[in-house]
Amino acid sequence: MAHVVIIGSGIAGLFTACKLADAGHEVTVVTKQRPKDSSTNWAQGGIAAILDKTNEDGMESHVQDTLKSGDGACDEDVVRSIISEAGERIVDLINIGVEFEKHKDGTYALIREGGHSTERILHAKDATGREIERALTSYADSHANIAMKPNTLAIDLIQRRHGQPSQGVAGVWCLDQDTQEVLTLEADAVILATGGVGQLWKETTNPSVATGDGLAMAYRTGACIKNMAFIQFHPTALFSPAERPFLISEAVRGVGAVLLDDLGLEAWKAACEDAKSADEEPPSPNPYSFTLRYTPDGSLATRDIVARAIDQQMKKHGTSCVYLITSHLDLPFSKKFPNISRRLEQEGLVLGKDPIPVVPAAHYMVGGVRVDNIGRAFLRDTESPVPHLYAIGEVACTGMHGANRLASNSLLEAVVFAERVAQHLILNPPNTYEGNHPAWRSEGLDALREHGPIINDRTSLVRTMSEEVGIVRSNQRLKRAKRRVDLLQSDVEMMWKTSVPTREIVELRNLCLIGQLVVENALSQSENRGLHYNVDLITDDKREPEPSASG
Ligand code: FAD
Ligand code: SIN
Q1: CA-CA distance, 15 to 9, in Å (whole number)?
Q2: What is the four-CA torsion angle of 324, 303, 205, 315, rounded to 10 degrees?
Q3: Which of 75-84, 112-121, 344-353, 447-456 shows the lowest mean pLDDT across its residues?
Q4: Ligand 2 centroid – CA 205 distance (Å)
Q5: Averaged pLDDT, 139-165
Q6: What is the number of the ligand 2 atom nearest to the C-alpha of 114?
Q7: Distance CA 398, CA 70 (A)
Q8: To the nearest whole percent, how much of the chain has pLDDT over 70?
């Protein structure tokens, strides 16, 4: 039986681990903090899926919404195949113990999010990811074939022949954060399931573990990285200057919440007052939404469009947020969205009553390690895979999301590719590498005496990415970002070569590399598509409509 090392304990890593372990393979799951510390655990809205394979119209409509959201850049075959496998993977999740919400008659309760033309998202209230993570960790914990290694930070992949990526990988070096020792973990196959890189931006919905480590490791091993310009900013993170951004799920807009800017809010409030004086019903906030001046889909358009509209509106008005309006809806908000309601209460806000201040925040890495349809990582500049290396979940770029991911398609893509990698390895068990595994270079390294410079460099990197490589870009800003990130990267690489590894320097090294990959890919784009929007590339047909005078 093969021994597989999986890096990451979100939906992608744990689902693969469970499937491989059930088939008798030995799996080690390496994870940076506690097993549940992942974006998966924070997922709110849900997982998009058509359960019934005979529902061809439903499936076609999910395909069309995904293609539209991807702005012409999706791989349609990949989209179709993922959507057609969705129902079976949901059944797998349910068998593992995930409880999705149901109606009283036993049918699944479906919700809607931005870019979806109908309700098709399975969920567990507003904390779907927590329920998925609970079920998967509990299944994995009780499995004799799965060894979970928490507090273990993967640093770099071990190549079967050093400097020859085409020979493939043989394991991974990890930092045991309890002992500060570097471990050499041998593996017949390594699966990267390390998630995204939200921590490269100041405002992010992502947990602290999202520093793009797997992507950076894959790049250093010679893997091909794709589409890094497409960073998704979620339109509605709670604006709370003292706290980290907290996601207000798109499902809230799915039930009818509307985005208003400061002027729209004022105008709508005045109209409500007028209606009250005339003893009439208050007007809907919808016609007062600036989003309608950017897209007929208004507040429920795809994320690229809504986030950009908010960004432009905030810049025009010099404001720090826009508002999510829910008071016109007669819904049991605290029952439907208990998690969000509780968090808002801490800010003195009531969902269903108060305007909720929101801003866009970095949310999802659309690009990643280029993989084929069984999750094999590709070598750069070739059409061949890196032997024994797989990438799944957010770290991978499968072609499904094109230039902008449709809401709730991430958990779906992750679980479908997790199954494909598991089945591939079950049917084609990898051979064991019999050669020597090189030990970690430990000679002549100095313990870093202070972490001050690393913290400063990280702050400076994150500031550069946030200020220069955000939702709306320009050539000048991207070039400035390139100069700064290149300088930081070479400084950090120098420090890295002579230092004993610590989590701080490992993450900073990876973040710098990914910053470079994002900026270089953004500079290489010749058109505005999906999430990439450079004012110097605007052509008339891609120009965002100017808001009218009232905007
Ligand atoms: P993750 O769940 O992020 O797991 C990555 C794992 O890798 C973690 O365990 C981490 O600790 C580990 N790791 C990283 N680096 C290392 C290292 N060097 N060494 C060891 N371990 C490492 N998508 C949807 O489809 N629907 C939603 O409703 C939804 N809501 C979201 C809400 C929020 C707030 C966020 C942040 C994202 C949301 N997404 C949603 C996106 C989705 O949650 C993620 O894309 C998905 O969970 C990624 O799963 P994953 O398994 O690839 O990675
Ligand atoms: C949300 O609930 O708004 C997040 C959904 C997603 O990222 O797919």
Answers
A1: 9
A2: -70
A3: 447-456
A4: 10
A5: 95
A6: 3
A7: 13
A8: 97
| pLDDT higher than threshold 70 for residue 104 | yes
CA angle 362, 364, 365 (to 5 degrees): 110
Of 40, 339, 408, the one to substitute when testing ligand 1's pocket (max ligand atoms within 8 A of C-beta) is 40
Q: Which amino acid is at 388?
A: H
Check if 303 is active-site.
yes
**Residues whose CB is less than 8 angstroms from the CB of residue 528 and which lie 6 or more positions away in sequence, other chains included:** 534, 537, 538, 539, 542
> How big is the chain, counted in residues?
551
What average pLDDT score do residues 511-538 get?
97
Selecting among 89, 130, 303, 473, the annotated active-site residue is: 303
Cut 0.70: pTM above it: yes
Using the mean position of ligand 2's atoms as its centre, give its distance from the Cα of residue 263 in Å.
27
- The structural domains of the chain, ordered by start, are 3-230+366-427 (3.50.50.60), 237-360 (3.90.700.10), 452-537 (1.20.58.100)
Report CA(30)–ligand 2 centroid distance (Å).
Answer: 26
User: Which atom from ligand 1 is nearest to the alpha carbon of 195?
Assistant: 53
pLDDT for position 433? 85
The pLDDT assigned to 96 comes to 97
CB 381 within 8 A of CB 224: yes
